[in-house]
Fold each of these.
Amino acid sequence: MSRKQHEIDRTLAGGMTVAQLIEALEDMPEDAVVVVGSDYGDICHTEQALIVGKIDEIDPCTERLETSAYSHSGIAIESIVDAAECDDDVPSAEEATRVVILRS
C-alpha cells in the first residue's frame, strides 16, 4: 500500500459509516433540512453550512480520493478524466474503502 493510500485510509478511519449515520439521524425530525458543517479555513474558523443536495457513492471508474494540501481534511475527491490517468497504486474495488459523498 502506498504512503498516500495509508494517509487516506487513516483519515477515513475516523469517519462515520452509513449505519452509524442512519442511527444518529433516527431521532432527528424527518422534515429537517440536512447541511454539512465545514470549517472554511479562515482565521475565525467560520463554519460553512453546505446544503446536501445529492448522495452518491464514489465510482472508482470516474473519481477517487487523493491527498491534498488544499483540503482541510488532507484528502480531496478527484475526477478521473482519462483511463490513462489511473495509477497502479489505486487499490482494487475489493480492497478500497467504500465512500459515500453528501454533495452540496
Note: The longest helix spans residues 3-12.
Amino acid sequence: MHCQNRGKRSKRETRARQERGWRQVARITGAGLFDLPEFFRTGLYKLIRGGLADAEIVRAYERCRAWLAKVKDGAGECECGCGTKRPVDAVTKRLFHKIWASLTGKKD
C-alpha cells in the first residue's frame, strides 16, 4: 500500500523549517530581522544558502533595511535610479538579484 501523504509536508512542518532558517539569519544580522517583511527574511536566508559570507549577509540586510525605510504607501523606488515606483513585494526578487550581483561580482 502507498501512503497518500507521501511527499507532502504539513504546513506546520514547513513553517517550522522556515522559522529555523530565519533564526539562522537573525544570528548573523542581530536584532531587527523580524521587523522586515517575510519575503526579505526568506531572501536573506537564500543568500546564506548560496554561500555568501556573514559580512556580506549583514551588508545585504542593511541594504534591505535602508530600502525599506524609503518605502511610502507600500511602494518603493527602483534602486537603479530610474525613479520607477513598484509595490514592495514586486521589487524583492529584483533587489536580491542586484544584491547578489554586487556582493559576488556575478550577474545571476
Note: The first strand starts at residue 75 and ends at 77.
